[in-house]
Amino acid sequence: MIPTPEVSWIAIAPDLVLAIGAAAVLLVEVQWKPPARILGYVTAATLVMAIVLSGLQWALAGDAVATGNQGTLLAFSNMITMDGLAIFARFALLVATGLGLLAGWRFVEGLGRRGAECLALVLLATTGFSIMVASNNLVMMFLGLEVGSIALYVLAGMTKERAESDEAAIKYFLLGSFASALFIYGVALIYAGTGLFGILDIRRFFSAFLVTSPAVIYIGTGLVIAGLGFKISAAPFHSWAPDVYQGAPAGIVGYMAAVAKIAGFVAISRVLLVALGDLDATWLPVVAGVAALSMLVGAILALVQGDVRRMLAYSGVAHAGFIMTGVVGGATDGVLFYLAIYSIQLVGAFAVVAVVSGFGGARSSIDDYRGLARRSPGLAACFTVLLLGMAGLPLTSGFVAKFGVFSDAWANEYQWLVVVAVLASVIAFAFYVRLIVVMYMEAGEGEQLAVRGPVRWVLGLAVLATVVWGIFPASLLDLAADALPL
Amino acid sequence: MLTALILLPVVAAVIVALVPSRRREMHLSLGVALSVAPLALAGYLFSAFEPAAGYQFVERAVWYQPWGISWYLGVDGISLPMILLTALLVPIALGASSAITVRTKEFVVYTLLLEAGLIGSFLALDLFLFFVFFEVILVPMYFIIGIWGGERRIYAAVKFFIYTAFGSALLLAAIIALAFNYASQFGAPSFALDDLMNLDLSAGVELWLFVAFALAFAIKVPLFPLHTWLPDAHVEAPTAGSVLLAGVLLKLGTYGLLRFNLGLFPETSVDAVQIMGIVAVIGIIYGAVVAIVQPDLKRLVAYSSVSHLGFIVLGTFALTSGSLQGAMIQNVNHGLTTGALFLLVGMIYERRHTKQISDFGGLQKVMPLFAGFFLFMAFASIGLPGLNGFVGEFLVLIGSYATLPALTVFAAVGVVLAAIYLLWAYERVFTGVPDKEDNLGLKDLSVREIALLSPLAVLVVILGLYPAVLLDKITPSTEAVLDRIEATTSYVVPAPGRISDVLMAGPTE
Lengths: 486, 509
Hints:
The complex is a heterodimer of chains A (486) and B (509).
Chain A: H1 9-32, H2 36-67, E1 74-75, E2 80-81, H3 84-103, H4 105-110, H5 115-133, H6 138-156, H7 163-194, H8 199-208, H9 215-231, H10 240-247, H11 250-275, H12 280-303, H13 308-329, H14 332-357, H15 372-375, H16 377-391, H17 397-411, H18 415-441, H19 455-471, H20 474-482
Antiparallel strand pairs in A: 1-2
Chain B: H1 2-18, H2 24-48, E1 56-64, E2 69-75, H3 79-95, H4 104-123, H5 127-136, H6 138-148, H7 153-186, H8 193-196, H9 203-220, H10 229-236, H11 239-264, H12 266-271, H13 273-292, H14 297-318, H15 321-352, H16 363-366, H17 368-382, H18 388-403, H19 405-430, H20 437-440, H21 447-465, H22 468-488, H23 499-504
Antiparallel strand pairs in B: 1-2
Helix pairs in contact in B: 1-2, 1-4, 2-3, 2-4, 3-4, 3-11, 3-15, 4-5, 4-6, 4-11, 5-7, 6-7, 7-9, 7-10, 9-11, 10-14, 11-14, 11-15, 13-14, 13-19, 14-15, 14-18, 14-19, 15-17, 15-18, 15-21, 15-22, 17-19, 18-19, 18-21
């Protein structure tokens, strides 16, 4: 008989709160039909509570590491871990969720009675990804992945009146579930080779035994990389990203992109760096190849896009490559720092897109940005800072992030990848700068865009984060350096 | 104090940004007034600077310990003149920008931020910090060209940006490589220049890093064949942009070659003397020949920059006392004279809205003062004895002859060509009978314009007659560069290339 695992409430407290919050939003809506604002407060309270509980976890994890009791950080028969990596990633997820909802608030309001669904789905997606980043077990990871992904598929089709939104949702769903299938098949093959699901168990297995011809493991690892590669939109698994970024409602797509990337990369780091860390000779070349391909494909294809959302999608592919460079570097802190600052910039950039092209809209041609600096100087200035941050100009957090992952990769003897990465950064400069050209140097007519409501806060915070962490990165870098996997 | 020198322009930019947009006239004058503060501080720095080797006024604060990055500033004889030049040209460039009538506030803000970035790059002794400033400069310059430039401004701005960003990308990779080599040799990474100079690099690694650094700076200088962004950027940029671009931005390249390539990779630098010399001389001749046939006055001055900067690179890599001194002096000279020539071209453009040489003729009669200043600056640029250009070019040529005799002979041709393109341009624009209707009513220089040009003219004369003002401060540092190269490599400066040779052979009874 299988013994009932001991329940460690604190290990799952943030996830529980998020799930309960999602249910609460729906129940409140059904019971009282309150104005959207009230639902917003419920969501906000949920997120704040989850952040507070994560802070508590962070303190506990710090104590446990300091006293050498790392074992206490594992819960539910080692299914869930409360290590620094998980908690940092969850912080990033929660911040991205909060900012994403603030940025898309007008979209949520515009949904009318379906606003509650949207909020609940967002909270559920965050719950799933939060479980995914904290799982110490491949099956648990899959569970979290699916909970999160399915919620995102629905969100992509939230504006079902528009054909693009439907199309985006279907594409996202079909390709996404295909990716999930690849992932779980990879997990099965790893299980076939080792008889284990636990991340730390697999690590111990490979450090204890030398597997002579681990073809099963190789294939399994490859499939896991491919499956997660879809989620983070790394080339050559990126083909869904532009269509989904373009079709999904503008108000919420920043959030969708950010959380999927955070969770996907933390999962990749956990599987590759922790579980299969001793096999790095086998997967490093593959991951380096994926990274190089993503950076080049993303940067080059972003150059020729006429739609800002497609451009941001391809730039996301390039960023996946840059973050992958950090995975090749073999350290999680560079990856985490990059994820934290990129997700904030991404949400901020999509907030601008939502303001310019409408919160539910799909088209966001680059022409809409002509002369934006004249029409809405504040908005253009914020967008410029965010674009320069994503381009990785010094004195923005993007530069520190790039510098971190590049130096990790260099230290890990992947010099060629760093050279590819810096060249891709230059190409990337070109398309970010192109948008700035359009905004500042070309004349264009159009109405003045007033930035109203919570979007202002999102833009302000994103710009602040980009600049402050660009000049004084030490605080966040130290946090990321402390956020180690077990 | 050095931190203050970087922050003063930033503070000035913030103050200007806070003035309401409708007070257009105020922005420019406020910008000029505020940019005098960094000039005053730089002047004080110059007078307080002891003529000795090594960095002075050093400031150091940890930025991020685990990466070994610090806010590390200092000034020596190589950076000192560049800082003074930057601080001098900014108020002049702003003062010459009365033609900027749209978005004046932004213009002043970008110019001041540009100044902060330039001064920061010259002061930084930490390679990470240097890279930050080096890269940040691109943004304000990009906006200055792209917003207030001429017809094809966007093309020029993007070309400028991409070229330079490409160079800096390689530079970044090389800087990371240096820090990691340091970490593997000394335990912890460091980006401090003096730490990295202790590195023991294998020849292969040193070669690659040298190439990466040299490419980044060669694009900035720009050396042939990487120069194609420069004429476009210059022609399209507004006057202030051209002045700062030619006066200071290009000097980042020559400064970087001298400071980082010679400093960090002495072995490879010695090996590269021939190649860099050849590239430099090609630049000198090519720039001059192309300048001769330019129909556009501004393009002509732009190509003359390519030629003049070739002299600086030649002097830098000839590795003798005289050539290095000459290169440094020429850095300053080129900033003064070419800066002034761009100002003059800008002034005539404001009046006539054309830069085509064929649209002018006989201006001497209409605008005698203007013609006088132009001729004076052209002479300075050609290297007429008594003016500053002579000192710089003479030192470069005489210094380079010791190591690169054949190339030096070719380089000397560049001096002749300079006389051809500048005097021929002068002849076509200024001499003869003013036969074109539009040129007859042109007003001569105003008091404001004379006030802008005079400081440059005065410095041209001072440096021409008594270059020791500058040379005394420069020489200990350039000698230190040579000392280090001689100490770390088998290279010996051929006699009489060192100052000590000359002094010993000095006046006999």
